[in-house]
Amino acid sequence: MRAKCCGKLWVVLGVLCLLSCNPKVKDPIDQGLEKTAVVVLGTVQDGGSPHIGCNKSCCKDLYANPDIKRKVTSLGLFDSETGKKYLFEASPDIGSQIELFNSICPEKTNKLPEAIFLTHAHIGHYMGLAYLGKEALFSSDLKIYAMPRMKGYLEQNGPWSQLVSHKNIKLHPIQKGEKVHLSSGLSVEALIVPHRDEFSETVGFVIRGKHKSVLFIPDIDKWEKWDRNILEEVGKVDYAFLDGTFFNGNELPNRNMDEVPHPFIVETLKLFKDRPDSIRKRLFFIHFNHTNPLLNEKSKEYDLVIRKGFKVAFIGQSFEL
After folding, report:
1. CA atoms 262, 267, 271, 274: torsion sign
2. 189 close to 179: Cβ distance less than 8 angstroms
3. From CA 92, how far away is CA 227, in angstroms rounded?
């Protein structure tokens, strides 16, 4: 497995202790990324951590002492062939995530991503686009890859429509099953997944490099609702970052969980329990709600996931493609 933690990024984050959580992750490298790779830039669910209005133990101490590892879910993709960078999701933490990504990419590359791929219109996945407008960056024709409904939503609703009219962003429509070729041997394919599609479709992405591939599905209602078999889909790739929003159904006692459906981690563990180690070790949980015990590497739930052969995504991991 070629997952690594990049030294420059860990200097920025100051979280070298995380390396001990996964003995197969290589030691930090001072020079940063050299080969085409995917980098984890955030792992938290849309509302972030600490979460607005939460005074439980999972959040109350974080208001006074923020954990800089807790950023909303996003992946970065560095293409060594072209020197270009790509983001998957425009999270509310987009500014710091771009800086983190820049800190491990070769200095000669552009500071802004070449493009951003969006999965859907829930706040943690597209709200960062707001910072591309005239109140902040005022970018110029930054490419945004989006499905048809997502594209229409951005074009027809403010403040996103202003980004289009001011040419801060340039929307590129993608279709399910279409491969977007970024360079020779590097492509991105959108897979429709069932989710609460109030304003847009929801997709996951398959990122294929010359040697390795990644499946990224941060949000889905339930695996059994998908018209694909998740066991088979994980078997087709080398790394899979999958919806780990809730560990179980007990995290939000005051909410109807049917209104916020996600595959509980305990359900996914059960689904994959008879799969060989070679399959289970490909599965990285991501997109954790602020209540999820996997945000605490010392929790018994975190230990359980690791002991069963699965992985927990953390900021700074890189995966060569």
Report:
1. positive
2. yes
3. 31
70, 62 contact by CB (below 8 A): yes
Residue pair 313/274 in contact by the 8 Å Cβ criterion: no
pLDDT in tens, 112-164: 999 999 999 999 999 999 999 999 999 999 999 999 999 999 999 999 999 99
Q: What confidence tier does 280 reach under pLDDT thresholds 50, 70, 90? A: very high
Angstrom distance (rounded) from CA 174 to CA 144 = 10
| pLDDT value at 48 more than 90 | no
pLDDT tens digit sequence for 189-207: 999 999 888 889 999 999 9
Instruction: Please provide the CATH number assigned to the domain covering 3-320.
Output: 3.60.15.10
Alpha carbon distance 38, 19 (integer Å):
18
Residue 183 CB neighbours (<10 A):
15
Please state the domain extents for the chain: 3-320
**What is the greatest pairwise CA distance in the chain?**
53
Distance separating alpha carbons of residues 270 and 192, to the nearest angstrom: 24
Write down the pTM of the prediction.
0.89
Query: How does DSSP assign 185-220, residue by residue?
Result: TEEEEEEE-----SSS--EEEEEE-SS-EEEEE---
